[in-house]
């Protein structure tokens, strides 16, 4: 992953901070910027702020702030060390003043701190997919059922994604706003997403690619 550092953050050499786990979870900058553009264009004019539920080291929150579309970006991260990296990285990109940071569980922060924003808000959720890729996947005991692997499974089971399943996420998001975006593995089982929609409605699914290869949906 280190050899991809300039794709992850083009300003890496200007002092970007990362944690060990961030290398596996951060959105590459070209993908983050394209997502920010697409969300900006899709959102109605009434939507003035965006919440990044799983901010990590700031890749998506920074891209949202750089788009200039939002009056404010609210970024939530429960790991204090990771949050410190995100704050620092936002300063490098010159958008620190455009982002409000929250340390804590996104479920609790949205419910207790950001409830008043729901009418004006779009939510972006890039949840953990469970473990590290390939040989670095978490070790599970015989008493613990392993979750799906986003690298080795031909079709990724969203209903058993860890630590948050698809239904965990929808329970949070759909009680807060109808305007939300999920950032999921490229092999996600789209049938599981389809059955969550109301009859007569359609979901928009976008494959985001780099160098001709699908990265995420």
Describe the structure.
By secondary structure, this protein is of the alpha/beta class. It is built from eight helices and seven strands. The strands form two sheets. The protein has a five-stranded parallel beta sheet with strand order 3-2-1-4-5, sandwiched between helices. Strands 6-7 form a two-stranded antiparallel ribbon. β1, α4 and β2 (72-77) form a beta-alpha-beta unit. α3 (29-42) crosses α4. Residues 131-144 have low confidence and may be disordered.
* Rounded radius of gyration (Å): 17 Å
Straight-line distance between termini: 20 Å
Main beta-sheet annotation:
5 strands, parallel
Calculate the mean pLDDT score and round it: 89
Number of helices: 8
Which strand order do you get reading across the main beta sheet?
3-2-1-4-5
Q: Please state roughly what percent of the residues sit in beta strands, choosing from under 5%, 5-15%, 15-25%, 25-35%, 35-45% or over 45%.
A: 5-15%
Proportion of helical residues = 25-40%
| Class by SSE composition | alpha/beta
Shape: globular
